[in-house]
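Hi team,

Filling in the usual template for the complex we talked about on Friday. All components are listed, including any nucleic acid strands or ligand strings, so the model treats them as one assembly.

SUBMITTER: L.P.
PURPOSE: interface mapping
COMPONENTS: two
RESIDUES: 224
SEQUENCES:
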Amino acid sequence: EPEVTQTPSHQVTQMGQEVILRCVPISNHLYFYWYRQILGQKVEFLVSFYNNEISEKSEIFDDQFSVERPDGSNFTLKIRSTKLEDSAMYFCASSEGPTGGYTFGSGTRLTVV
Amino acid sequence: SQQGEEDPQALSIQEGENATMNCSYKTSINNLQWYRQNSGRGLVHLILIRSNEREKHSGRLRVTLDTSKKSSSLLITASRAADTASYFCATITGGGNKLTFGTGTQLKVEL
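RESULT (copied from the run log):
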């Protein structure tokens, strides 16, 4: 069964540092997403990406966030200057089409200290 | 108001019983999906029901959709301890490009 792979599984970083979360979506999927889940809270949409550009982003996805698809397989989320409130589980997902089911990765637990 | 409110927030049942979770949403949708999340893990897609469908089955799962009431239910029949997890409904709106998740139901199935 194809899967979405996320690395690292856990990242601890100092406040103010930059982090890059990495994802390898399913190879024939065209749509990519980042979500986050603060401990005990709901899963929140951050950004969707299609055809090498952002197709939609939430109000959470401000200037400190960016996404990139640097090659044919990786999809990254960069947080430029981390804050304590960025501590959360970050999930990458991909889908074949814009309205189908998503396949999620296992997540990266980001802890900002 | 939130797109995707679920009830109950928590449900505890005995193995072998059926579990029913409900989801209500606010805006018109293209489809509604249910996902499962084991503690601290990723989300697993369970089933998708389109706005023109009323009921769908997959194994022990049965999903209904009532677009007039903007609600859906997920029924898990003959539950097992391994079904213990959080279950989320998520919607894709008509012109939308993203899944919006509900608040989730924590299901505990006891032996």
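MY TAKE: The first strand of chain A starts at residue 5 and ends at 7. The mean pLDDT of chain A is 95.

Thanks, L.
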